[in-house]
Structure formats: structure tokens, C-alpha cells
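Exercise 7b. C-alpha cells:
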């Protein structure tokens, strides 16, 4: 594997946005910089209209011998939320982004920086006005349950921070640094005279059935993996942040994947598409076991006797964390149900052939 094309294919196993402890978090805003050219924000995409348009644009781009790259949303249900079409043969690149709530994106320079494309004209809006009360109730229920799920995730994040705080004093930082240095020397090429590029994505998405992990895509894209078994969450942020710095300094492009419980914190997983290498974190709540994995136990970095003195508190935190996550899944499932009700009202109002006409308008031959 190698090069920009492989970096793009690695997007098949990650998500651009998801519900999280920080609310509905999206990395879409940083995506246009990867494509250049036009940026089109798709509005009013309820009822699957935006998803249908993105898929139709993907088919049209392929028919026009362009290079389409579909990117996915892991929040609630897996579906496309963006499409990158690289520029080639004198044609400019274009980036289509679903910009609807709860991941709304505002145009900073309408017409100059971004184009706003509304799908309202694709519907019989008179039919929607007749069901305005139902629409309002479904939309309010959807937003309410998304916020409810995020509140449980914030409480779960507090439990995880508690475990990391309790065990931090038992960590051997010198061992972590030595291991990071040895792993970097073994897995990374020598410095290439430039700094690598970093993208942020989620490796997992929150759904009503639990955490969504596209393990088959992960295994197909990354033949070499190191899995850190870190049940308390204290080691992974330190170890992977060190290796992230080594990689960028050596000129490697990296996809940093934070935890849904701490979307702004240090990465929980690191993906190196050019090397086919994945550095992953696993625990009892989130097992990951790709074939050919090198497994590293976080216990090697602790003073075991000191860690044993906290076993009762850690047991309580693990149980509370498990229960809070289960409640977040229930709330997310309720949000998905409310969204399905909303979409069921919107979908029948879509005019026949409207999506195909929009695709032709947005991506002319």
C-alpha cells in the first residue's frame, strides 16, 4: 500500500461523524481541504434524499470516469454523509457534504467558498405542510433522544476518567516511552524530511445496538496491527500520542481516531494507510481482534501491587461504565426510531426522477 489513493481507501473503515460524549460531533468541516475545488452543502436531506443523491452522484461520477470516494456516518445508522471526487484531467475536484441537523454546516463564503444546494424543490411540500404537527413531534423526539444518549455518554466518560485518574499514579511512564520508541523504530520508516498529514475520524459509531465497528473493512485495509488491551484507559492516550508524534515527525500520514467518550482528547486508535498498519485499543467493552495481531497488555506498564489497592474502586467504575453505556444505546435506539418516523413522512413526498435530475445538475458531463 502507499500514496494518496490508499489514504483515501482507508476511509472505508472509519466514520466522519457520530453521537458522542461531546454531542453530535462531525469532522466534515475539515474534509473540503482534502479535495480542493467546489464544496457543495446539501440541505433539507430528510427522508433519505441526501443519501440517495450522494449514491446517485457516486454512480454518475463512476460513469464519467471520475474517482468518487463515499464517506460514512456512524451515528444511529450507517449511511453516506459525504462524497469526494478528486480533480483530474483538467476537471476540478468537488466535495459534497450532507449539511443537515444535527450535524449542520454553515457556508462561510456562500457562492465563493461553498455552494448551498437545497433538496426542497425535489418534494411536494404541500403534503408536508399537511403533516406539520407530526413532523414537529418527530423532530423534537429525535433531538431529545440524541441529547439523552449524549448525557449518558458524558456520565460514562466521567467513570472512564475516574479509572484513568486512579491508575495514573501506578503507571511507569519510562516504560511507556521506551516501548513507544522501540515500536516506532520497528514499524515506522526513517524521517523523510517533511511532516506528515493528520486526519481525524471515528473508528466506531454509536448505534442503538451498541458500538458500530467496520471490522471487515479494517482487516482488509490494514494487514499489520498492534492491539493494546487497556481496560482502564490510562495507557492508550499516552502511548498512542507519543507514536502519533513520532509518525508525523517521520513524515507519515496518520488517521487519528478519538474515543466517543472523549472526542477532543488524545487518540484511542491510529491508522497508517501507507504502511497498512493499525494501532488499536481494545477493552472489555470494545473487543478488537484482527488476524495476525500483536497484542500488548497494558498491565506491563503498571506497578501491579499498587494497582491492586484500587481493585474495588475499579470494579465499581467498570460496572457503572457498562450500565451507563447500555442506557446510552437505549436512548440512541429511541433517537433512531424517531428519525425513522420523520423520514417515513418525508420519503413519499419525493418527486419521481428528482434525484437523478439533481445529480445531473450538480455533476455535469
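Sequence design result:
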Amino acid at each position: 500500500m502507499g500514496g494518496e489513493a490508499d489514504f483515501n481507501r482507508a476511509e472505508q473503515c472509519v466514520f466522519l461523524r457520530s453521537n458522542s460524549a461531546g454531542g453530535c460531533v462531525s469532522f466534515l468541516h475539515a474534509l473540503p481541504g482534502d479535495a480542493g475545488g467546489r464544496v457543495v452543502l446539501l440541505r433539507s436531506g430528510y427522508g433519505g434524499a441526501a443519501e440517495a443523491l450522494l449514491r446517485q452522484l457516486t454512480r454518475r461520477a463512476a460513469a464519467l470516469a471520475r474517482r468518487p470516494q463515499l464517506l460514512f456516518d456512524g451515528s444511529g445508522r450507517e449511511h453516506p454523509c459525504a462524497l469526494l471526487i478528486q480533480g483530474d484531467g483538467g476537471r476540478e475536484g468537488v466535495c459534497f457534504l450532507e449539511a443537515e441537523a444535527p450535524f449542520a454546516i454553515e457556508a462561510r463564503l456562500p457562492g465563493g467558498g461553498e455552494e448551498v444546494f437545497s433538496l426542497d424543490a425535489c418534494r411536494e411540500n404541500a403534503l408536508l405542510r399537511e403533516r406539520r404537527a407530526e413532523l414537529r413531534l418527530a423532530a423534537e423526539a429525535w433531538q431529545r433522544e440524541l441529547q439523552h444518549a449524549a448525557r449518558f455518554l458524558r456520565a460514562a466518560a466521567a467513570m472512564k476518567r475516574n479509572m484513568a485518574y486512579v491508575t495514573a499514579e501506578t503507571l511507569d511512564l519510562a516504560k511507556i516511552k521506551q516501548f513507544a520508541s522501540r515500536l516506532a523504530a520497528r514499524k515506522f520508516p526513517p524521517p523523510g524530511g517533511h511532516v506528515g498529514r493528520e486526519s481525524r475520524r471515528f473508528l466506531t459509531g454509536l448505534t442503538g445496538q451498541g458500538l458500530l465497528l467496520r471490522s471487515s473493512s479494517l482487516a482488509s485495509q490494514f494487514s499489520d496491527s498492534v492491539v493494546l488491551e487497556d481496560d482502564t484507559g490510562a495507557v492508550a492516550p499516552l502511548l498512542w500520542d507519543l507514536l502519533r508524534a513520532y509518525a508525523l515527525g517521520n513524515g507519515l500520514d496518520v488517521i487519528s481516531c478519538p474515543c466517543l467518550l472523549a472526542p477532543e482528547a488524545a487518540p484511542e486508535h491510529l491508522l497508517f494507510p501507507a504502511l497498512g498498519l493499525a494501532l488499536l485499543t481494545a477493552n472489555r467493552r470494545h473487543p478488537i481482534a484482527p488476524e495476525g495481531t500483536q497484542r500488548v497488555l497494558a498491565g506491563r506498564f503498571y506497578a501491579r501491587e499498587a494497582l491492586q489497592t484500587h481493585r474495588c474502586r475499579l470494579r465499581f467504575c467498570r460496572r457503572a461504565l457498562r450500565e451507563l453505556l447500555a442506557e446510552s444505546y437505549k436512548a440512541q435506539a429511541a433517537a433512531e426510531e424517531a428519525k425513522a418516523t420523520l423520514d417515513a413522512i418525508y420519503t413519499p413526498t419525493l418527486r419521481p426522477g428528482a434525484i437523478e435530475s439533481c445529480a445531473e445538475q450538480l455533476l455535469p458531463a
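Instructor comment: Residues 1-7 have pLDDT under 50 and may be disordered. The two ends are 32 Å apart (CA to CA).
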